[in-house]
Amino acid sequence: MKNQYTFFVVLLLTLIQSQLQSQSKQNHNTIIQNVWIVDGTGSNPKKGAVRINGNRIVAIGNLTPLKGEIIIDGKEQYLSPGFIDSHSHHFGSLKKEPTGVAMTNQGITTIIIGQDGDSYPMDSLNAFFQQNNIAVNVASYSGHSSIREKIMGENDVFRKSTLEEIAQMKLYLASDLEKGSLGLSTGLEYESAFYSSKEEVVALAQLTAKYKGRYISHIRSEDIQLNDAIDEIIAIGKITGMPVKLSHIKIANKDDWGKAGLIIKKLELARKQGVDITADIYPYNFWNSTLRVLFPDKAFTNLSSAELAVNKLFDPKESVLVRFAPYPAYTGKTIAAISKERNETEAVALMRLIQLAADYKKANPNAGGIEALAGKSMKDEDVAEFIQWSHANICSDGAAGGHPRGYGAFTRVLGKYVREQNKLSLSQAIHKMTQLTAQHLGLQKRGKIATGYFADLVLFDPTTVNDNATINNGKALSSGINRVWVNGIIVYQQQQATGELSGTLIKRN
Hints:
The chain starts with a helix and ends in a 12-residue tail after the last strand. The longest helix is centred in the first third of the chain and has 26 residues, at 2-27.
């Protein structure tokens, strides 16, 4: 009995000490001095200091340390707002890896999930944050495909919905929006949403607009029907009057390479006509998705469709299988190498790989992540032109493994497109990672170094910042990111997590 009493006393004291330590962290003053402040607005860097109290920025400028406050010497490095990733798939790794190094190593402090039409219900996210602490902030859209599967059944979404089903979807979406979702996301190129009618999407978008939400879309086609797909998202913006965002803008059809300027003109014309259309983009010329996305007509056993894919929609010689559960030995090999190994044409090999994955899924119905391809299908010049568009912000579209964008998208922009190629100034790039993104998403008090804003901050060296992740080493940490604060707490420094977990769930105001 005495031992039991002692145990509870020790436990109580431990809990009290932990609470006091937490309160101390939230109430202390920190001054970050001797830094070049890149405030996120696009303005030129200014020498100065930033004071943090708790989770907020309370002063900026030529500051003198206060008695007892923590002093951090920035050593003339650059201090920016924390990077906001407007299209992330990192959330799935955060329960197992709550320190979120995949994000913080590249300066990301806030991730936006619920992308490509696939989301968790807001109730589930609320429950997660009640039970778990993580190092980064999270906000979410409501996913169209997830709602379709909930209402129509996971195996019955390969058709148009009925009016009754649309009505049920609207009820489900309204509930999620009321609980803080940013808006509606669609993944119209993927099979779970591909068969939805434009009327279904518009009905859900109109409901979202009534809640002052936003719309983001992986559009119906990024290749042979790209113009029609862009027309659809522009039409949704016109009909609803709400902001619409084109996910990871790209040109994935070789016949249209070099036409980024024409697409930008189309988007600018829509903006002049009153449509608040924007885009996000990741800084790579290859994507990461399923093999099935290479078939615009979803005719996976049609040789002509497969030949269109290998000749126009991706480069088999530079596209690598990053995951293949049916035959793990194929992982890390190009489609061209696999076709040679199988003694098949590249088109036939592509069809066969899709069939093998389908057979594996049928035999293992609970299996996830069966196959994935890093598909080379964009032109560097188009990527650079889209990155430079004034209404495009940076995203990763990444996860904690696989495509190198999951660990290095933001640092790649700073290394390649700012320092090496001078496509953007440093201030422009930071703006596209911070304030511009916050504006596109409707996030309040984030994305800028300003008094009263949340203290999400990144201290970095612009002369060394660089991405190091590759297809063969997708988890290599970035260089030059020296410290990262999330809500006033340092979560990453000296290329490792501190163990602090100060992230929060951000909801639409």
